[in-house]
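R.M. (postdoc): so does anyone remember the format we settled on? I'll just put the structure tokens first.
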């Protein structure tokens, strides 16, 4: 129902208006969810329940955060202050929170103009100096990129020594599945799960590709807690690639 209404609103109302009034619209939606059973750690809203999307993901009615964003925030919150940060495809909920957590600098970038962002970097040729950032957030980006090895080497280049890149993509078991001959939206949807996905990584495959490009990689795996107060997914996997 939520997705249907959102789609409907998006088809009628200009994107610029939605972006400008997003907070107001969400505050209105969240009124009927007020309570104490669950909590969003990004906007601190407490609620009777999350909005459950058709894929099972629990969405915060107030800030629109997804489970993966709340899990990421739990991990990076203590590390933000005083750091130079670059975020690809910045969701509004998280970018507001990072901006208000005293980073030294914070740059957001989105190539497809899907999110409001400062820059429009091509991740295969990032227009930033070497060794510029302590933290890079690269969530659900690499599976869209034709030359993902070049993207990884660019991420490595712009990170400072000991800096970390937080990475997530959809995952499957086994090896990375990619095939350049599958190049239509229909084919990509059928084989890779989305019309604009060029591959599906496995955790081990992505880890080893990052390692080939110089990174040390730690795989963090989180399981849903019993009370699931933060609305986590059953399993959430984050790769921390460190220079
Ligand atoms: Zn929230």
């Amino acid at each position: 129902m939520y997705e249907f209404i959102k789609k409907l609103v998006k088809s009628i109302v200009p994107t610029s208006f939605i972006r400008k009034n997003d907070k107001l619209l969400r505050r209105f939606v969240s009124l009927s969810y007020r309570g104490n059973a669950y909590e969003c750690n990004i906007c601190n809203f407490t609620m009777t329940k999350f909005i459950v999307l058709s894929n099972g993901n629990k969405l915060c009615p107030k800030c629109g955060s997804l489970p993966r964003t709340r899990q990421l925030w739990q991990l990076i919150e203590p590390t933000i202050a005083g750091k130079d940060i670059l975020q690809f495809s910045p969701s509004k909920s998280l970018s507001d929170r990072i901006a208000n957590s005293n980073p030294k600098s914070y740059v957001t970038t989105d190539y497809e103009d899907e999110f409001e962002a400062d820059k429009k970097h091509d991740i295969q040729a990032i227009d930033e100096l070497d060794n510029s950032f302590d933290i890079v957030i690269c969530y659900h980006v690499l599976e869209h990129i034709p030359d993902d090895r070049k993207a990884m080497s660019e991420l490595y280049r712009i990170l400072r020594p000991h800096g970390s890149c937080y990475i997530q993509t959809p995952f499957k078991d086994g090896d990375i599945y990619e095939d350049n001959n599958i190049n239509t939206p229909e084919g990509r949807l059928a084989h890779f799960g989305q019309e604009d996905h060029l591959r599906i990584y496995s955790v081990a495959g992505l880890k080893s590709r990052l390692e080939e490009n110089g990174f040390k990689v730690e795989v963090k795996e989180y399981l849903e807690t019993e009370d699931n107060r933060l609305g986590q997914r059953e399993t959430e996997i984050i790769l921390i690639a460190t220079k």
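R.M.: ...and that's the designed sequence above, right after the tokens. Also worth knowing: The first strand starts at residue 34 and ends at 39. Residues 1-65 form one domain.
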